[in-house]
Amino acid sequence: MEMMSARDRRARFEDSEALRALLTRLHDAGRGAWRDDPEAAALMRHAADKYAALARKHGLDPWEAASAAFEAMRGAATRRADDPWAVVTRAVQVTCIGEERGNGLLCSVHQARRPRYSVFHDAERFSDRDNPLIDYHPAFHVEPDTALDEQEPRPERVVSAAAAVEDTIAFLTWVGWDPATGRAVVEYIVARLAEASSRASAFESLRRDRQARALLDLPRASWTALLRIVLGNPDPHLTHTRAGRGMLLRLLIGEPLDSFFTDEDLVLTAGLAAPDTGGGRP
């Protein structure tokens, strides 16, 4: 019987007019009503259950969402709204988003809600990336003092797209791909990449290109693995890593071909992806 009454009470809380009546009664009761009224305690337990999923979505405890609901329920605008629950739900959602952004930005919720701060990405540790941040971020770069440098500066290694393609083909041949197959596949990928808006879109388009895979006579596993090797893994979390950049981009930004031969994971992945065409490592 007690279980049924609790269930009925939860069902009544979901009714907007019943919620309005309860909030009005608590407001009229004056100071201490929220603390002493048993129905108010039941309402907050209901709010914690109601917004538990929303809280977990933003990495918060359900009672943090219930606290936001409590603040919204005390407002006069909630009591006068056409749908009090809609006002409460929106307030909880905004608070949860602000809490999550504040935790990510390492600042207060008040600051995280402001556009001037919310546009920034979450704080990151230096160890979160495969390549150290200081290696490529301009904020950590300084111009060399040429007055103290008696030697002539060495020109940067410039790699053309054609050279990057040839190096990629040479690497695939070295790990066991048939030279003709490797050249045909890489040149096809590069041609499609030139027509795409980004490497990620080219990857997705090529991954679904069954006709190309059939013409090149490649198994699905070899085709997908080769796309990751040449274009990089499209996972946004790997964008700034070697796996996310892919061979072509790494070669174009000046990474020497010799470094790929010492990358055991890459050599193993490319070697296992080589189709059985009768070719072998030279």
Task: Characterise this structure.
This protein is an all-alpha fold. Helices cover 64% and strands 0% of the residues. It contains 18 helices and no strands. The chain has helices at residues 2-13, 16-29, 33-36, 38-50, 52-57, 62-73, 76-80, 84-105, 109-112, 115-118, 161-174, 179-195, 199-207, 210-216, 220-231, 242-252, 258-261, 264-273. Helix 11 (161-174) packs antiparallel against helix 12, helix 12 crosses helix 13 (199-207) and helix 15 packs antiparallel against helix 18 (264-273). This is Serine/arginine repetitive matrix protein 2.
Quick recap:
The chain is mainly α. The chain has helices at residues 2-13, 16-29, 33-36, 38-50, 52-57, 62-73, 76-80, 84-105, 109-112, 115-118, 161-174, 179-195, 199-207, 210-216, 220-231, 242-252, 258-261, 264-273.
**Succession of helices and strands:** HHHHHHHHHHHHHHHHHH
Calculate the mean pLDDT score and round it.
Answer: 80
Question: How many beta-strand segments?
Answer: 0
Structural classification: mainly alpha
Count of individual domains: 2
Rg to the nearest angstrom?
A: 30 Å
Key terms for this structure?
mainly alpha, Serine/arginine repetitive matrix protein 2
List the helices and strands and how they pair.
Layout: H1 2-13, H2 16-29, H3 33-36, H4 38-50, H5 52-57, H6 62-73, H7 76-80, H8 84-105, H9 109-112, H10 115-118, H11 161-174, H12 179-195, H13 199-207, H14 210-216, H15 220-231, H16 242-252, H17 258-261, H18 264-273
